[in-house]
Amino acid sequence: MTLGLGLLGCGTVGGALVDLIAEQPGLEIRQVAVRSTTKARASAIDPDLLTTNAEAVVGRSDVDIVVEVIGGIEPARSLILAALRAGKPVVTANKELIANCGAELLEAADAEGVDLHFEAAVAGAIPIVRALRASLRGESIQRITGIVNGTTNYILTKMTEDGAEYGTALAEAQRLGYAERDPTADVEGFDAGAKAAIMASIAFNANVVAGDVFHEGISAVTSSDIDFAQRLGYKIKLLAIAEQFTDGDERKSSVGVRVHPAMVPDSHPLASVRDSFNAVFVEGAASGELMFYGRGAGGEPTASAVLGDVIDAAAALKLGGHRPIAVGGRVPIMPIDDLPSAFCVNLLVRDEPGVLAQVAGALGTNGVSIRAMEQHDIAGGNDSARLIFITHAAPERQLRTTLAAFGELDVVLGIDSVLRVLGD
Amino acid sequence: MTLGLGLLGCGTVGGALVDLIAEQPGLEIRQVAVRSTTKARASAIDPDLLTTNAEAVVGRSDVDIVVEVIGGIEPARSLILAALRAGKPVVTANKELIANCGAELLEAADAEGVDLHFEAAVAGAIPIVRALRASLRGESIQRITGIVNGTTNYILTKMTEDGAEYGTALAEAQRLGYAERDPTADVEGFDAGAKAAIMASIAFNANVVAGDVFHEGISAVTSSDIDFAQRLGYKIKLLAIAEQFTDGDERKSSVGVRVHPAMVPDSHPLASVRDSFNAVFVEGAASGELMFYGRGAGGEPTASAVLGDVIDAAAALKLGGHRPIAVGGRVPIMPIDDLPSAFCVNLLVRDEPGVLAQVAGALGTNGVSIRAMEQHDIAGGNDSARLIFITHAAPERQLRTTLAAFGELDVVLGIDSVLRVLGD
User: Fold this and answer.
1) Does domain A128-295 have CATH number 3.40.50.1980?
2) Domain boundaries, chain A
3) What residues of A are in contact with residue B16 (Cβ under 8 Å)?
4) Which of A27, A145, A209, B231 is 20 to 30 A removed from A287 (C-alpha atoms)?
């Protein structure tokens, strides 16, 4: 029995998928919806399969499974809903759609008794969605920390390894096709934020959407930040972090989701994730630390994830029944002000007695405690010195009031950098 | 609807599982088969659940899913077969059994239309079995390279980071409970070999058994091997490698499965897997490089993998039907003599003109080509020098005949070390 696929979109991922499906027994692409049927295409697709009528592809009686790789909210959302309502399982690679409308789509899928798969929406070829949905279903997950944007990881790797400035590394990434001409979605953390929302939703059984995620991008990271972090034994990475806070009372649980650059200790497995690779680090109560590493983008790796989902959908069609993903309700989202982070602060101070006491006093008054501190003389720096300290995790609000207090101190000549630190 | 579990075995993994199941809605342990009902146990298990009659546990009408964590071939095999024949899905953590009798058990499961799950048999909490079975089902997997034995990775990490000799590091591992009093199964590569056989079977859809795996352990690795590798930019790791060789003709495909120490370049993700952690590196045609990292042993991490399987089995029971794992046939196993490896060879040679030509001649005659070479003078070494080279991959037989040819050369004073190298 051969199952028919209807493919919506035939860009980089769709084209790679056409080639992969051609090698799979029991699967056949019946029609492909595209914007232009005359455009030249890299993959060996039969031109007779192309149509501009996406609704018709969804509606064909010989299309058993619908694969959506158009991207964006509409028309992808309406097409997927139409497919689900026609009782057809859907496989999508659309992170923006799932991060914004995932609950609606999953509820529609469950109402129709069919499956909605979206492994490729998070971290390309890395099977993190299946790991969270299936392998870790019974696990109490405490935190997920991911490098889930290849463009920014490539830029930060170039800055770290070649000493490039941000602008130069971004231009190089654009030249190689790793970054878009308008790089905002990547470098400002929107892309990583959508993936964080999806992972948080599955891991914590909650409805977390893209808009819930705090994000700060990498455009303000300087090569001197990177040098400074390296000297202390850290790499700077753009992290997507999803955490659950229960304080021992499930009814009062809240979720924190954020994307920002952070210093990652060299000994941490995420520190060695280079170039455009992605990795997701999961901390579970029983499983301990897990990490999933691989290609987070690109036509073939993403198509590989779509293919895994298509095979799963095909198996489920043969079995009958479906395996719903429970859609959790909305949960309190902890605002960034309340989220705990450790910080590394680099202060320029007067080199005179009593400075440390004043700085430590400002920290203590604001409830921030110090994990490590070092003082450096500055060559030719006359009366000034450098004070570098790493704090224990404290709510971000407290760090901000601490920095304001530093600004009031005569002995503090400047706050040269403030970076979040992974760990603690 | 609550599903009943019958637990066979209640050691470290079983005890941890009892605690995890207690927190899961819809699952309940109905009875636990143990060797002694009077032994003190760490987990908060109801003593009334204990019995020494394992057959009775399998046969109970209120046991819907059987979980086997006894280990070893018998009685585990007979109990699992009895459960499957009674139409009950089975979850097992038993690598020895699956690596030796997996095909028989999977065929029995398929004949009865029930599922056999064994995520915990390979690499503890790391969901590599589900990744290979589901996410990568359609992927053409070229090679799997794993650090899948925590004991040996702990020993090698201690040797690398503390400069410990093998015997000292082993004793430390035994003191901490990472190594058994008889460490043979771990340090000689039998444990890793069983896991390699299981991974090869799933990835290549072939029936590969433990006895097919070539293994060489770490007991001959010296601290000077480790120093030498580190100076060249490599870490020594015990690798389990499963490869498929097709030469473009699927009918002539064969599988290579082996466990041996190898030099892993510092830039490779496997090089940074420290202590008792495990990791599995997968190379797929479309997916590219993937790595799965985590705790490969221990009660809680292993129980976490068992729990994921139990939840999967429970979902399948509610749905009806089952998802068989295709059992491939026996395939030609490529003997170690024919398996390609790159090697690093450290020769002591006379420091005189023409030496390099003679050494290079012996390599060329035996069809081994050189990727990199360096010559070092030896302080106070009068007429001798050190020649270190890394070869391209060549069948192991050719390396052996090359080494024999070196032995015939007057200019070669000694072969100080020969280590396999990952890569190429």
Assistant:
1) no
2) 3-124+300-319, 128-295, 336-421
3) 286
4) A209
Give DSSP secondary structure letters for A58-122: HH-TT--EEEE---SSTTHHHHHHHHHHTT--EEE--HHHHHHHHHHHHHHHHHHT--EE-GGGT
Give tens-digit pLDDT for A154-205: 999 999 999 999 999 999 999 998 899 999 999 999 999 999 999 999 999 9
Q: Say what the pLDDT of residue A253 is.
A: 86
Examine residue A75 and say whether the peptide bond preceding it is cis (omega within 30 degrees of 0). Answer: yes
* Residues B278, B125: Cα–Cα separation, whole Å: 9
Gyration radius of chain B's alpha carbons: 24
Kindly report the pTM of this predicted structure: 0.94
Residue A39 catalytic? no
Task: State the pLDDT at residue B250.
Answer: 64
ipTM beyond cut 0.90: yes
Question: Does domain A336-421 bear CATH number 3.30.70.260?
Answer: yes
The Cα B14–Cα B302 span in angstroms is 9
Contact B244, B340 (CB under 8 A): no
Q: Which is the CATH superfamily of the domain at B128-293?
A: Dihydrodipicolinate Reductase; domain 2 (3.30.360.10)
DSSP state of A333: B
Domain A3-124+300-319 has CATH 3.40.1190.10: no
- Give me the total of CB pairs closer than 8 Å, taking one residue from chain A and one from chain B: 171
Residue carrying structure tokens 């204990």: B50
CB A66 within 8 A of CB A58: yes
Query: Which residue in this structure is represented by tokens 């490869």?
Result: B243
Q: pLDDT per residue over B246-302, tens digit each?
A: 876 666 789 999 999 999 999 999 999 999 999 999 999 999 999 999 999 899 999
In the three-class reduction of DSSP (H, G, I as helix; E, B as strand; rest coil), residue B355 is classed as helix
**Buried b or exposed e, range A139-159, using 16+ CB within 10 angstroms:** bbbeebbbbbbbbbbbbbbbb
Got the DSSP string for A220-240? T--HHHHHHHHHTTEEEEEEE
Q: Which amino acid is it at B230?
A: Q
Q: Which of A267, A286, A312 sits opposite B303 (nearest CB)?
A: A286
Contact between B260 and B420 under an 8 Å Cβ cutoff? The reply is yes
